[in-house]
Description:
CATH superfamily: Class I glutamine amidotransferase (GATase) domain
Strand content: 15-25%
Shape: globular
Helix content: 25-40%
CATH architecture: 3-Layer(aba) Sandwich
CATH class: Alpha Beta
Mean pLDDT: 84
Radius of gyration: 17 Å
Order of helices and strands: EHEEHHHEHEEHEEEEEH
Number of domains: 1
Amino acid sequence: MEGPHRTADRPGRRPVIGVTGPDRGGLAAWWFSAWAVRRSGGRPLRIRPKRPHPIDTVDGLIIGGGADVSPALYGQQRDLRFSELADSGMRGWRRALGYVLYPLLWLARRLLTKKRGGLDSARDALEIRLIREAIERDMPMLSICRGMQLINVTCGGTLHQSLEGFYDEVPAIRSVLPRKRVRVAPDSRLHRILGRDECRVNALHAQAIDRLADGLVGVAHEPTGVLQAWEHPRPPFRIGVQWHPEYLPQHAEHRALFVALVAAARETA
């Protein structure tokens, strides 16, 4: 079922895909993720700290984007100098272009997404529990942005609290548009899903993975060396991407990530 131009088979019960998020904000990410899951043949279930669901109620998980992962979880203290960097990058003519090309998406994110830069300990605790239970059950997982970082931390890895300094010679990109190029490892499962060596992605993050956890393999990088995707080398499906594929529904390669997740959830359900 892998490859950017395939669609999910839909016989029988539609697998339930839990989509995690915050109690406040996060509606844009939920709506776009839920739409992607439905298009791929799954049934989305929203999971929040105030509305948790047991792991046994889902067949797969999407650990979504949002607030920064608490540095205490990987043995660091929070550096408050970096707390406002998350909203500093989308300026000038490129931001205006984003308004013109994606007005509804931009408006939805501005109105429905909680301001970045804060921490969410309740969400951290909920998602860490779900991640550990999903790993114990060999449950398929797709992790996006913060979710990619949190699974890495849960498995023993660390993060860069800020990417300031990585872009001294290369302009930093923060855009919902697919403006960043990443190289995908040719022998990876991610490559088989996307169907390409190089992929254009969006960039909405201010943090990134520093030390990759044991058992995870880096499979996509940007030219600066920042890790853009990892995967677990053995089944079941477990992939983390630093970009937001839910905001790129017009691109077959990004839709293919959700198709692959739903197909894996159906096989293992």
